[in-house]
Every structure is written in C-alpha cells, then in structure tokens.
Design brief:
Blueprint lengths: L7 H8 L10 H4 L3 H7 L4 H15 L3 H11 L7 H12 L4 H10 L10
Helix pairs in contact: 6-7
Length: 115
C-alpha cells in the first residue's frame, strides 16, 4: 500500500466490505476505488495471497473479520481540503459545511453492529 500511495484508511475499510475470495475479481471490486487502485499494481496478486494466508492463520469467520474491521476503520476521515473548504465558507458566514462535518465526524465509524 505504501508503494502505491494508497489511502490506508479507505483501503482497510474496503477490505472489510468484501469477502476475501471476491478481492481477486475485478468486477467485485469495481465499486471499491481504493482496492481498484491497488489491484492495478503488479504486486497486488502477491499481496493478496499474503493477506489471504494471514486470514487463514487467524482462523476467524468472515462475519467476525468484517465486523472487527468496520469497528476500527472509519467511513469518514477529516481531510485537509474538507476542513479548508468549511473554514473558507465559515469566514464568509456560511456554516453549512462546518455543521455537516461536525455531524458526520461525531460518529466516524458507521455500519457497526452492536452486541
């Protein structure tokens, strides 16, 4: 991921959204932009094999793996450009973006099942 300059947060979140066997299928990942970008790297097949080996060694069912990943990998991450846009608008008296960012960043991890 470092070599491809992947967005780590989005990559981990998207890894938690798919079943491991689907990750090698281009059609399955087409709606997961971070994984699409990684899959274009020549190291992708080797990395994917290493990842799948790791998952097998952990011996955790896929539902548990996905739940764990959703709990620790946020959907919403404040980015500098977002903050700058909100600040610029707020300086002009428009607080819509500030309020929106406050709302979504109060609970950045979505899709968590309690229990």
């Amino acid at each position: 991921m470092q070599q491809t300059m992947a967005d780590f947060t989005c990559t981990f979140r998207q890894l938690g959204e798919l079943e491991p066997q689907a990750m090698s299928d281009a059609a399955s990942i087409q709606n997961h932009w971070a994984l699409v970008r990684l899959s274009e790297a020549r190291q992708w097949p080797g990395w994917l094999n290493t990842y799948n080996d790791r998952l097998q060694k952990e011996n955790v069912c896929d539902d548990t793996r996905r739940l764990r990943m959703r709990r620790v990998n946020p959907v919403y991450v404040p980015r500098n450009w977002m903050m700058q846009e909100a600040i610029a608008d707020a300086e002009k008296g428009d607080y819509d973006k500030v309020n929106f960012l406050l709302k979504i960043l109060r609970k950045p991890v979505r899709g968590r099942r309690e229990g």
